[in-house]
Specification:
Layout lengths: L2 H14 L16 E5 L6 E3 L2 E5 L6 E3 L4 E4 L11 E5 L3 E6 L4 E9 L3 E2 L2 E2 L5 E4 L4 E6 L11 E9 L4 E8 L5 E3 L1 E6 L15 E8 L17 E2 L10 E5 L15 E3 L7 H4 L1 E5 L8 E6 L6 E7 L11 E6 L2 E7 L2 H4 L7 E7 L6 E8 L9 E2 L1 E7 L17 H9 L4 H29 L6 H7 L8 E4 L3 E7 L5 E7 L1 H6 L2 H14 L8 E5 L6 E5 L6 H6 L8 H21 L4 E2 L8 E3 L5 E3 L6 E2 L6 E2 L4 E3 L5 H6 L1 E2 L1 H17 L10 H4 L1 H11 L2 H4 L10 H14 L10 H17 L31 E3 L5 H4 L3 H7 L7
Parallel strand pairs: 1-3, 17-18
Antiparallel strand pairs: 1-16, 2-3, 4-7, 5-6, 6-15, 7-14, 8-13, 8-16, 9-10, 11-12, 11-14, 13-17, 17-29, 19-21, 20-26, 21-28, 22-27, 23-26, 23-29, 24-25, 24-27, 30-31, 31-32, 32-34, 33-34, 35-38, 36-37, 39-41, 40-42
Length: 798
Amino acid sequence: MEILDLLLLSQLVLLLQYSSLHSLSLAYELQEKYFVNCGSDDNVDLNDRNFIGDLKPDSFSFSKGSETIKDANLTLSSLYQTARVSSRQSYYKFEITDTGTYLVRLHFFPISSPSSNLSTGIFHVSDSKFRLLNNFTAKINSSTTSAIIKEFFLGINSTDSFKLYFTPQASSFAFVNAIELFLAPSNFTPENHNSNLPLHTTYRVNVGGPELSPNNDTLWRNWETDDIYLSDPNSAKNSNKSTITYAPNDQADRDFIASTKFIAPDLVYKTAKVMNSAANSSNITWSFSVSRNARHIVRAHFCDIISTTAGEIVFNLSSNGNFRKEIVELESRFHRLLSNPFYYDFVVNASESEVVNISIAPNFTIDIPNAFLNGLEILQIMEGTAVIYDLEESKKVNVAIVVGSVLGGGLFLICIFLIGFLFCLRHRKAKKNRGGISHNLGLKISFVEIKSATDDFDPKMQIGVGGFGHVYRGTLSDGTKVAVKRCKQVEQRSGQGLPEFETEIIVLSKIHHRHLVSLIGYCDEGSEMILVYEFMEKGTLEDHLYDSNVPRLSWKQRLEICIGAASGLDYLHRGAAGGIIHRDVKSTNILLDENLVAKVADFGLSKSGPLEENFVSTAVKGTIGYLDPEYYMSGMLTEKSDVYSFGVVLLEVLCGRPPIVQTVPREQMNLAEWVMHCKKQGTLEEIIDSPLKGEIDPSSLRRFIETAEKCLKPDSCDRPTMADVQWDLNYALKLHQTGRLGAPHEDSTVCSSSAFSIPNIPHFASLDSTVNISAMKDDEMESTESEIFSQLRIGEAR
């Protein structure tokens, strides 16, 4: 397990662990609680919870502009006969007096009325930082008689108020029937509360026992039966015991934690699945469908209710075929008897697989080969940030029109002064807000500490140089290894570096993803503008393609790097706040950690905003050789511009050469044109990077080339999304790993025709220079495309 995962896991373990309460009764005395019956003025009792109608005065409120809907004919609980509906972003606000970790449940049942059908609503649900539900719709079968309940664990560190936002998509609407929000015990709070990511309960399973309703759980949780998730129902059988004994709450080793009734009810620990000796199976496996490319924390519950003496059963726990832990009755460490409940947590990293398989398998060297499991919980780690609008801000007013109509033209100069004054105030407020975001995230680092970390910017510590400035390696006072990017003084004085500096901080404060480089901090003291990132041990992808001193990458490694980078870009486009377009995708901006895990970097040119609205830029920005021709010609920026650039990177990875090379014959200068020419001629094998020749499975190569072709389509509408690109690359990897040989006509190396038509891409004058095309004069724009790029003054590029 990686260090990052261990740190995250340690925080999540603390997040999920309850205190051992000496009085373990079913009456859970909540410190602070909200149970809300939405869209109603009636209170509803449900499973010992009193849901208060949101129309009654209380310490919570909802934003203006929403309305209520009611279906009194519904046979379900009256809690689901009403809902609050809104066609614009709305929120519920809760007054918070105690910080800590809160459990949040959202209840949805799509009731209907003559004016609306709630099952057609599409919306997001967010707190102030993270998106909890994305494009959610509450569609249920006509025979369904239960509501959809979504459960989350959230860290709340403000004693002011907490808001839950409901954001409709396009012309749709959002709704909710009921909300639960309550605080866990005091020592439930993790060590570093600000850094905790929300958790979404995906599965909660009572293994070997019946379904448990909220009436049977101290925290009103539902527990499913496990039979529907068994890969082989004959491999296991049920076991049960009438009594169990909870161990003292202070008993735990490094991995196993003694449980309490607030971790799981005793009915979970009194039942289990065990090996079915008659089936002659080697393991018991449960399969769960999960979200692709999301990390999950798995909690496995154990209680030995089948042994006669402690330690006689030893078995292995695995996930997706990877060994996790040897499970044994740890009598010497827990100082307990048999039938003591305990649990074990671990993180399943993001992958293309949409399935998590949990397996237990006996150790057949033991006299009694058996294995058992009592319960399972799977929680998704939510990493998508949210876009929130302050609904309490006053409406914008055209100051010039209002003042002018009141005062008349004689005071026009005063109006101008007033407008300028208000503009300055707004600018200062915006600047303050930008700084506030980073400050609240603990990102600000003093110049003194950065100087110390880099040995006063010792040239020996320099590891790179870019348009923004020099990059140094360093070590912070807490031992964290970092990369320090210091803005050039000339950039500071001219102001060219400031927008990129601010954009980088704003963008990186919004995003959290395994395949995007993390911002550790920044410094803006005096004239210094410095960005501090996590240190990427293996440098850039470009280094591994062209640097003779770096070992060459295998085809499998290259595919995995491309898949990781595609995953990061897909998150930018779809999962990040409002959508983010990178605008400078290239091999130098794909960094590799010590395990060659790819992370996209350098967000100085990024553009944030809704991707449904094409952004027309008067300042076309990007890097020559990677720049989308459609974006260059029209100024129309979409996420498909990133897709084009990534297609160039794919060819770069395959051929081991830059996008533009001027020291070769003209027909070979442009990589994209040259690859397509060779493909049509059936000579593609000749231009593949020499270390890869003979290594790539033909079917894998064919799928890879097809993917790059689609990315480079002249019309952006014909290009795939990054999610589609990622899927295709994963398929290419699977084809390579299985070594399936295609028929000769399927082999791309001998394919003589292609439906792909590459645009007439100009032969750029530079290998790798980022440019601002808007700086060119009008007469230069009348030149041919090749001439335009040859006339650019590369020395002034970013």
